[in-house]
Amino acid sequence: MNEYPAWMLTREGKALKENLDNAAQRGNSMKEEAVNHPAHYQSASGIEVIDFIEAYELNFAIGSVVKYVARAGKKAKETEIEDLEKARWYLDREISRLRKKETT
User: Interior CA angle at 91 toward 15 and 85, to 5°?
Assistant: First the structure.
């Protein structure tokens, strides 16, 4: 029996697992760093948004959607709605790009 679920055996799953393992190693010993590891881009378990974006090889627009949704309300409570609006802007832009691509 495999120690990992089947989805982790895919290329994306393996990359995500590697990034999650790296995040776990950084774990609690990592001090909050404003540039390299800002707290508003980490989950409670230490997973950083950049690790997720890179593991799934997301393009700039979709990566930005993930980034703004993940940090909404964490960087500053008063900018939560603004972060979600930014995420929507990038999502709408990506949808428009894909629709144009379909028609060409």
Answer: 115
CA distances to 63, 70, 79 from 101, in Å: 19, 28, 33
Q: What's the length of the chain?
A: 104
CA angle 68, 85, 38 (to 5 degrees): 25
What are the residues whose beta carbons fall under 8 Å from the beta carbon of 50, sequence distance 6 or more? 41
pTM, entire model? 0.62
Q: Which structure tokens are listed for 68?
A: 């703004």
Other C-beta atoms closer than 10 Å to the C-beta of 102 total 7
pLDDT tens-digit map of 46-69: 778 888 899 899 999 999 999 999
Sign of the Cα torsion 71, 77, 82, 88 reads positive
